[in-house]
Design goal:
Elements: E1 5-15, E2 21-28, H1 32-36, H2 42-46, H3 50-59, E3 60-63, H4 71-75, H5 79-93, E4 100-103, E5 110-113
Length: 122
């Protein structure tokens, strides 16, 4: 089954207007519309870098107890959190997965790790 939602924890967290810290969230896979529709937005036409803000506001479906994740929320993120979400977006939406399954040689516990497997291994 295809995994379409990914939980995350921001390195620093978003601080809302009431001073509440929001760190845990969910990002979903992007659709073609998520990537195409923001190109029509005048903010993107004026500044291409704003595309990331709009994309993240569309695919981050939950952040802490916030009712909605808007462009204002994404704009208010610390730089480290913004970079973290951009990286997560790239990893989950890239063709194929950079994660692969491995098992502990001592206890045989299976888990996923990032990166590509060594040549000849899957």
């Amino acid at each position: 089954m295809l995994k379409t939602e990914f939980e995350f924890r921001l390195p620093k967290g978003y601080v809302d207007e009431d001073g509440n810290l929001h760190t845990d969230g969910v990002m979903r896979l992007a659709t073609a519309a998520d990537e195409l529709l923001p190109m029509k937005d005048p903010r993107v036409r004026q500044n291409e870098a704003y595309l990331s803000v709009i994309l993240l506001s569309r695919v981050v479906t939950r952040l802490g107890s916030l009712a909605m994740v808007t462009t204002m929320v994404i704009e208010g993120l610390f730089a480290a959190d913004f970079a973290y979400l951009q990286d997560l977006y790239q990893r989950i939406n890239s063709q194929g997965s950079d994660a692969f399954k491995v098992a502990c040689p001592k206890c045989d516990h299976a888990f996923e790790v990032g990166g590509k497997p060594p040549i000849g291994e899957s």
